[in-house]
Structures are given as C-alpha cells and as structure tokens.
Model the fold of this input.
Amino acid sequence: MIIREHSRDRLGRAICLAALFLLLFSLFRLFPLVGDDWFREALGSSLHSPLDLFREVAHRWSTVNGRILGNILAYSAGSRPLLRQIMYVLFTLALIVLLSRTFQQEPLSSLLFCTFLLLALPKEMFVQIYPWAAGFFNYVPPVVMLLASLELVRPVLEGQPLEEHPARGAALFLLGFGQQLFIENNTLYALCVSFALLVWYWLERRRWSPSLLAFFLGCVLGGALLFASPSYRLITQDGGAYQSGLGGGLAGLVASAAETLPLLIEYLLLDRPALFGISFLPWMLTLSLLSLYLKKVRKKVWQDWLIAGVLFLYLLTVNFRWSTAAAAVWWLVFAVGLWRWTPDRLSRAQALFFWFSAPVAAAPLLFVSPIGPRCLFLSYVLMLGTQGVLCQRLVPNRWVGCLGAALLMVFLFTAYFRTYLPLHQTEQRRTQAIQAALASGQTQVAIPPYQHDGWLWDADNADKMEQYYYREHPGDLTISFTP
Done:
C-alpha cells in the first residue's frame, strides 16, 4: 500500500513538472527583448563555435567583468530564442524543485506554491530577473547552484553527520566553484556560508568534513578567478559603470553604506508592490509567524504578546512607506519571534539560518552603486526559505494545500499572460515593420512603443536595437518610436 502511494506521488509530481514546463515555456516565449539584450543578440549571432565563445568571454573577463559563467549563458542564448527559452524553463524548474525541499510538504502543493512564490516577485525585481535575459542568466543560475549545494549538505543543517562520499565532494566542489562566476555579492555570500558550515561542523562533530572542505575550496578558487578580473580595478576608481566606497577608505565605506542602506530595505521590505498590489513577502512572513504563535504558544507571557503586537502592527501598515529604522526593528522582532515560537530545534535552526543569511547576502551591496532590485534576488529567495520552514508547521491536509496553491497559480498565470501577450503582439508588429524597412532599403523606420506599465525594463531603447538591425553596418537603420 505504501509503495503504491509513493508511486502515485511520483507520477503526480512528474505530471505537475511537465505541466509547469509547458506553462513556463508559454509565458517566457512572450517576453520581448529589452535593454542590452539587443547587444547580446548581435554578439550571439557572431559566435559560430565554442572557440568564438571562449575568446569573447575571455575578452570580457579582462575588460568588462569576471562573470564567466553568466556571460557564457547570456552570450550562448543571444540570437537563439528557442535555446534561451529552454534554458529559462530548466533553470526556473530547478529553482522551484530545490526551494520546495525547504517546505517538506506534500509534493504537489509544495511545487505549485514555490512556483507562485518565485514568480510573484515585486514588480521592479520581476522585470529585472525574468523578462531581461541578462538579469536572468546572471542572477537565477547561481541561486540554483547554491540551493543545490545546501541540499547536498542538508544533514549538516539538520544537525546530523554528513555521509562522506567522493561523488558528494566532487559535486560540492564544482557547485562551489561554478556559482562564484556570476554575481559578486552572491560570490561573497557563498564564501561566508561555505566557511561557516565547515567550522560549524567541526564544532559540532570535532572533526573536519572532506565534503565541506571541498565546497569551501571550490568557493575560494571560483571567487579568486572572478575577482582576478582586471575590470574590478575600475570599481575602486572613477571609471567604469559601477563605483564603490573602497577608494575613500573607511569614511568612503560608511558614506556609501549610509546612502545605499535605505534603498536596500526599500527594495526588499517596504513599498514595492507585487502582483497583488502589496509587499507580498513581508506580509506573508508576518502572517505565517503570527499563525504559528497562535497555534503553538501556550504560555501567555507579556514578552510574546509584545512581539506579536509589533508584528501585527507591521502587518497592518506594510503597504505604507516606512523608515529604514522601522523596517530594521521589524526584521529584528521577527528574528526574536522565530527564536521563541519555532517549536523544535531543527526548524528553529533552519529558519534562523535562512533569515540571517538574507542580510549577509545583501551586505556587500552597501558599498557599491548603482544597484537595482535584481541584486536582492538571492536575499529574497533566502527569505522564501524561511517561509518554507514556517509552512512545514502550518499547511493543512494535502488536498486543501493543493487546491489553495492551484488557485494561486491560476490567478498568477492569468495575470501574467494578460500582461505579456499584448506586449508579444506589439513585438511581432515591430519586427515586421523593421524587416519590411530593411527589405525596401529604407534608412529609418518608426515603430510602436510598448505600453507596458512598468512590466518591462529599458523597453524602448533605439540605440541598442540599431546595433542589431542593420543592412551592412550597425547603425545603418535609424529606429524611432511613434507617439
């Protein structure tokens, strides 16, 4: 009977993943090219072999940035829409599956709920992660690799001994090395986490773990390769697209942090409306922890009621503009609530691990400018991990959970298809107009702009489009937008 039930679960999970593949593929193919994706389209069409790709990535490493794997993925997807969409879907599905492991609930409801959580991002973050190909390939794959690493060392997070095996050690080394070649703050976070896990295991077991050591070494070597790029010298100087406070010493770092901290908190916690018109993640976290308090706490001590009152006030005012100090107080009060109300040591340790990891992942951004909401994607996913741990204790029976998650999914995809299908149709009309102008030998063409209401980032950029659409040389065709 148990075997038959497991077989049904595996079949249901496979059907669910297949349906998600089709839904995600149908959504992602609607995203038009935006911003500097046009540059990667032109670059991708000029790459005809792995050697061409290697030369281009090596050149970028020595001049632009050290994001080797991010550049490989983005350049490979340039001018290859089917490959780009398939990679989009596979990385997104991998992220969904790995995040669902933190929920440890019935498989179908976990998959559906995690899909909802990962797509119901704040609008400014969503448009810089999913519709923008460069954002996707630099920010999503390293998070997938990090969650895969944490899955391999799950026994350590659960307070159990780690079974050592050469395959586990090799996988952790490769994942540690690979995830370092994307985005800088993710790289520094992985270094911190790999070192913390290594030391924590020694303190717990009084012996070193070869697998954790391999993970740490992979992170060190990958981070060294990333930051060995000569391009990072510009960040401490006056040139380059990014600046940091490093050039000004301690005073420069403090000034940079004071300027950037309100922006970080605003992007992550404050009034950045998501699909429902609310700051979805802090609202959901607060409600979940309050539900856990009402369900589990038996002692009516004044400290618990004070914590619950502060969280309830935040829940009521989460859509109003808060100060940085107020958001920081909420974050600390929430951490205290996790400590007091999570019912067992294992859940408490996991919840606090994800909760405190979020600001660690965001901390390097304090000293760099400019930053965008996409930079907080890792922190956002780590906070979703906290939500997953809370849901382990809150989700009702499997059918209620599946029905609720399915309804959320229906609403989510309906809203996104209604948003991006008209944009896809506009893209087709624009492409037809440009191709007709090229075929007739025109030197300029006017195309309709996107009516996107903020759901596309850097959408109408004629300068970047002109680098891709041309007859003989870039810029031969001048593109403008109709009123």
Notes: The chain has 20 helices and four strands.
